[in-house]
Records
---
Amino acid sequence: MEKDKQTLKRTMSSRHIMMMALGGAIGAGLFKGSSTAIDEAGPSVLLAYLLGGIILLFIMQGLAEMAVRNKNARTFRDLVQQSLGSYAAYFLDWIYWKMWVLNIAAEAVVAAIFIQYWLPECPIWILALIISIVVTVVNMLSVKLFAETEYWLALIKITVIVIFILCGILLLFFSFGNHTAPGLSHLTNHGGFFPHGAGGVITAMLVVIYSYGGTEIIGVTLAETKNPEKVIPKAVRSTLTRIVAFYLLPFFIIVSLIPWNQVNSVPESPFVIVFKMIGIPGADHIMNAVILLAIISSMNSGLYGSSRVLFTQASDGRVPKVFSKLSKKKVPVYAILTCTSFLYVGVLISLFAGSQTFNYLMGSLGYTVLFIWLIIGFAHLKSRKHAAEQPAYYVKWFPYTTWFAVLALLAILIGVIATTSIVITCITAAIYLLITAAYLVKGRRQ
C-alpha cells in the first residue's frame, strides 16, 4: 500500500552534494587516466578537457533546471520519463547503474594495488576485500555518515591538488638549485601543440568524458537532499567551476613541466613526478596516499549512486520489492549489499583479466557517460513542452547551449567509435542490447 511505502530521508546539504559530485569525478580518471590522455593528445589534451568542461556545464545546467521543475523527482528516471518516455528512462537508469557497479569493481582492485605499494607481501584480493567491506559499512550506517565521510575525503584530495597547482606554477616560472624553469617551452617543442593532429584530441575525448563522469550523480541525490530546488542549482554552479579548474590547471602544469612524450614512459603518476621535482621528501608516499583516498572516495560515491537507482527501481515495482526496504536509519540496506556484491565479482574478473582491466572498463564507462549526458540533453530539450510555468532556476540561453552540447556529444561519439578498440565497442553494444531486450520483455509492461 502507498502509505506503507518507505521513503528516503532528506539529510544531505549543499556542501555534501557539491563534494559528492567532486568525489565522483576526481578519481582514477584524473590520477590514473591522465597519462593515457596526454599520450593520445599531447599538449592539446588541454583543449579536450576544456571542451569536455563546457559540454558538462551545459548538460548539468539542463539537469538542474529539470530538478527544480520536478520537485518530487527522486532520481534520473523521474526527470527523463516525462520528456522522453519510459524506454529512455529505463535505459538511463540501467546504464547508469551498470556504470557505477563496473566502476567500483575496477577501482577496488586499483585501490588494492596502491595499498600493496606499502604491503607488497599482502595478496591483492585480501586488500580489495578489506576496502570493499569498509566502503560498504560506511554506506550502510547512515546517509549522513556517508555524506560526511565523502565530504572529508573529497576535501583532502582537493587540498592536495591545490598544493600541486601552486608547486607546479613555482616550478614552471622560477629557477632554483639544480632546477631550471622551463616556462611554456614544452607545449610546442616536441612535435607542436597538436602532435597527433585533431585525431589525437578526439581519441582523448573518451578518457575526458570518463574522467568528468560522476558529476551527474547530483541527479541521484534528489530524494535525500534538503530543498533540492535551491540546493541542486547551487551545487551545479559551484561544482562545475571547481571540476574544470581541478582538471585544466593540473594538466596544464603536467604538460608544461614534463615533455608529453615522456609522461607515459615512466611507471609513476605524473603527479608523483612533479612532487619529486619540487624536492618534497616522501613525495611518492604522499601521492600514493592521496590517490588511494581519491579512489576510495569515488567508490563511495559509486556505491551510493548505484544503490539509489536500484532502490527507486524496487519502489516502483520494476525489480523485487526487497531492494526498497530501508533500515531504521533510512538506508536501503539490501540495495547496497547487492551492488557491493559486484565488487567481489569485479575482483575475480580483474585478477584474471590482468593489467588491461582498467583500460577496457574505462572505455566502456566512457561510452556510458556519453549516452547518459546525451539522454539528459535530449530530455532537457523537450522538457519545456510539458512546463506550465518558468521555474525559479532556468537556462537563459536555452535551447542553444543544450543543442551545442548534444551535437558535440554526437560528434565525439562518432569519433570515439572510429578510434576505439572494436572489443570495447562490441562489449558495450552487447550490454546496451541486453538492457533493451529486458525492457521489451519486461520493462514495457510496468
---
Amino acid sequence: MQERIVILGAGESGVGAALLAQAKGFAVFVSDFGTILPKYKSVLSAHQIPYEQGRHSTNLILSATEVIKSPGIPDSAPILVALRKAGIPVIGEIEFAARYTNAKMLAITGTNGKTTTTLLLYHLLKESGLSVGLAGNVGYSLARQVMDDKFDFYVLELSSFQLDTLFDFKADVAILLNITPDHLDRYDYDFDKYTRSKFRITNNMLPDDHFVYFCDDDVIRNYLKKHPADMNNLPVSLTKSQVRGAFMDDHAFEFRTGLSPDFRIKSADIPIYGSHNKINAMAAILAASMIGIGHKAIRKALKTFKNADHRLEEVGSFNDILFVNDSKATNVEATFYALEAFDRPIIWIAGGTDKGNDYSKLKALARKNVKALICLGLDNEKLKEAFGAQLTNLQETKEMEDAVKKSFKLAENGDVILLSPACASFDLFKNYEERGKKFKKAVKNIMLNKREVV
C-alpha cells in the first residue's frame, strides 16, 4: 500500500515538501486552513497534487502515514491535537528534506541576527567556489532544492518553530547567536522551554561536528554549564580571549580554529555595522573556516558582501551625510544596536506601533549619540515622553517623505540619518519592508533634488 504524506500549510516550505514527497513516490495531500497564494496553487495544480484551502478535513488528514506541518502552525491547533491523539508522526519540511541528501548542513539560529549570519555564511561559501544552497527562513525551500540535490552544502536559517519539528536531522556545523525572550506564547510563557527549543540545533551532533556559539550570552553559557555539548565547541566573544574560537582583540577579530593557522581580520574590514554584527560576522567566518575555507578567500569574499535590505542598510550619502535604513528594527533591542553602531552624530527617525516598549534602555545612547529625533507615527506621545526632556530637537510627522526632508535640513557634514523605528510599522505602512522602501525612495528624491531641499 502506498504511504501517504499530508502537508499542513501551502507556503514555500509546504509546497516544496509536497513536490519532494511526490517525487519520492508518496501519495500527497496538501491542506491549508487559510488561503493559498495563486503562485502556489498553480504549482500544486501543475503537478496534479490535490489540495484544500480554508479548512482542515480531519478524515483526510488522519489517513496520513506522516504529516509535515508549516512552522507557523502551533501545537495547540485542533488538527495537531487530533494527530497526536491518533499517534501520527508530525515533522517539519527541514526534517523531511534532510532525509534525501548527503550534503553538509550548516544551521544557524538565535533570537536575533539569524538572517545576517546566514546570508554572510552563504556568501563566504559561494564566493569561495563551493556548491551551496540557501534555505530555511531564507531562500527557496530545502525540499524543493533537494529534488535536484545538486549542492554539496546547505546553509539553513532555522527558527525555534522549525527546530521544534526536527528529530533525526543533524547539523555538521551549528551556530547559536543569542537567546532572549521571544514567541513565548508558543512555549507556555516558559523561557526555559524556548531555550531548550533553540538548543535543539545541536541534537544528534557528533564529537567531530562544530558548534559555534556566543559565549557572552548568559543564557547560552548557563545552559551549557548544565548540559555540556559533546562536539567541537567554538565560542565567540566580544570581551575575552579564547583558546579556541574567535574574539575581539584591539579592533580586530582573532580566529583560532585548531584546524588551521590562527588568523586576524580587522573589524574595519567587516562590511556590516554594530557590535551585534561583529558577533554575527565572527560566527559566520569561524563556521566557514571550519569547513576548510582559507582566510585569504574569506577576506576577498567579505569585500563583496551586501546584507539583506532594511538591516542597517546604507542607502546613500551626500556631503558626508550618510542615510541608513534599519526599518527591520521593530523592537527596542534592535534599535539599541543601531544607535550604538555609529561614532557620528545621529538624526534618528523612530516611531510606529508601540509594542509595550521600554525606552529607558535607549536613553543613555540617545543622550550620547542622537542630536535630533524625528517621530514618525500616528501616536508619538510615548516617544516624546521618553526623549523630550533630553533631546532639544524633537519633531513629528506622519509622512516618510517629510521625515527624511526634516532630517536632511537638520543634518550637517558627518551626520547619520538613521531610520530605526523601534516599533512595528502597521500604523502607517503594511509592513517594515514597505516602510524601508518608502525611506529609500524619499532618500533618492532628496539626492535628485538636494539643491531645492537645502
---
Amino acid sequence: MRKLLLIPLAALAFTAVPAQAATVPPPDPDALAAAVRPGPDASGALARVSGSAGSWRGSGGVARIGTSAPVHPDGRFRVGSITKLFTAAAALKLQERGTLDLDQTVQHYLPGLLPDTFKHPITVRQLLNHTHGIAGHGLPHKDPAWFFEHRYDTFDPVTLVRMGAAEGPRFAPGERQEYGNMGYLVAGLVIEAATGRPYGDAVRELVLRPLRLHDTYLPGADPKIRGVHARGYEATADGYVDVTEVNPTLQWAAAEIISSARDLDRLLNALLRGPFLTDRARAELMAVPTAQGATHALGITRLDLGNGRVVWGKSGDRPGYNNGVAGTLDGSRTLVYSVNTLRMGGDRSPTAMRIIAAAFG
C-alpha cells in the first residue's frame, strides 16, 4: 500500500503542505473504459468519477470467474483500510460532542491495556495519525497459506493489541510515523471506553446515518458480503480460489467495513467540504504531523500530483479487493475504484494504476 499517481491509491504518499485545489480536465470515457478492463492481475474492476468537471461510472471484467456476469458499478466490496476514514470521522464527531478528547491519552481511557514498558503517554490523536509507536500484531494475514487456514477465525481486538504491545514501544510517541492497523484497533477500544458502547455504534450513528450511506455496513464476524458484489479470488497452482468470504474481526476498526463506490464518494466529499465537519474538525482531519517521515493525517492522506494538483484520499485492500478513494478540495474530481486482484498482499495493482492515471490525467 503506498506511492504516487502511477502507484495505487493505497500508495497515496502524501505530504504535509498546505492544501491546494487540483485543476482536472473532463473525464475521458474511452480512457476510463479501457482502464477498468482488467489485465492479468485482476478478474474485475469498477470505477466512479464525479465532480464539477464531469462524471463517469463503469466496470470491466467479470463478477464471478467462469461466468460472463459483469461487475456492477454500484456493487459492494471490502474497503479494507478505507475503514480508517470512518473510524477517524467518528472520533472527530465524538470530540465535537465532548465525549472524546483526541489529546487525552490511551492510558487514561484504557488503563492497564499497555504494559509498563510504555513509559510515555500516547494520545488518541497519535493513534489516528500513526505516530503512537505500538507494534503490529505480527500475524501474516496476507499470506495465502495463513489466510486459508484462519479466514473464518474470530479475533478479539484486546488480544491483538496486547500481542503488539508485548514487544514494547517501537519509538517514543510522536517521534515518527509508521502506518499500520494497530493504532485503529486501539482507537476502536478507546471509542468504546469513552462511549460505553461498541465502536460500530458510533460509526453508524455519527457517520453512516447522517450521510445516508445505505450501502455501507460493519459486518462484525459475518464472513459474507450482502447484496450485489463481485467475487474476490486468489490465483494458486491449483487454480483460482474464491476468497470473498472471510471473518473480518482481525481488521475490526482498522479495515472491516463493506461499502460501495457511491457511498465512498459521498463520504469523502462530506469530509472535504460542507457542514458535516466543523472547520476545526476538518483542519484536524487533514493535519499531517511533523514527525519524521510523516505522510498521513487522521485516516486520510495527501497526494501532490504535480503542477499544483493535489488530491486527498485513502486506499485499502483485502484479499481479492484493492480499492481507493481520492478527490480534489474544490470538488472538481472525485475517484472511487475497486479492483478484484488475483494475488493478496501485493503493493501495486497495474489495473488500479491505470484507473488512477485515467481519472486524474
